[in-house]
Amino acid sequence: MSALHLVPAAPQSVRPGSGVTPARRLTAVPETPGSPPAGPTQPDAHEKPLRAVGEKGEVCAITRGTVQAAIEVLAGTRPIHQLARRLDQRCLASLQHRAALTRRLASGSSPTAGRLHRSPAVRSVRACEVAAGIYEASAVVVDELRVRAVAVRLERSNQVWRVTALEIG
């Protein structure tokens, strides 16, 4: 039986000075008996090697997205139901209540109240495993007026990460 291996093909020519790096393609090459198996090739200088993301990296990514979405809910630019799958019921109700209070404050006479939670950006995320399947994470969020700290507790149940505590400073 013959097997096919995928190996990088020769790059296509690109016009000089276009500033575009050629895309790498894979070509199927039949395996010949007695030849060494085709393994991974060395990446080009402009390519970053792929690496597996561990559980801590996954938690940090989930925290980053959840915190960004929660701040956008407070700003009124994202509907709260988009977080229903990630937050437990208590956190969801608390965030909904705080968003209503923020909207009420923004409609008042304060000149800075209308700019609360505008243009948020998550600057950094740190996570720490406190028990098997339970992480606590912190995030730093910058908006137009100030820098905020956010604390999150994530618990894994049925292979899904759920936020069981969300504190926005």
The run of helices and strands is EEHHEEEE
Structural class: alpha+beta
Question: Considering DSSP H and I runs of 4 or more, what fraction of the residues is helical?
Answer: 10-25%
Report Rg: 24 Å
Strand order of the largest sheet: 3-4-5-6
Rounded to the nearest angstrom, the distance between the terminal CA atoms is: 64 Å
Q: What would the average pLDDT be, to the nearest integer?
A: 78
How is the biggest beta sheet arranged? 4 strands, antiparallel
User: Any low-confidence stretches, pLDDT <50, length ≥5?
Assistant: none
Beta-strand percentage range: 25-35%
Extended strand count: 6
In DSSP terms (H or I, runs of 4 or more residues), the helix count works out at 2
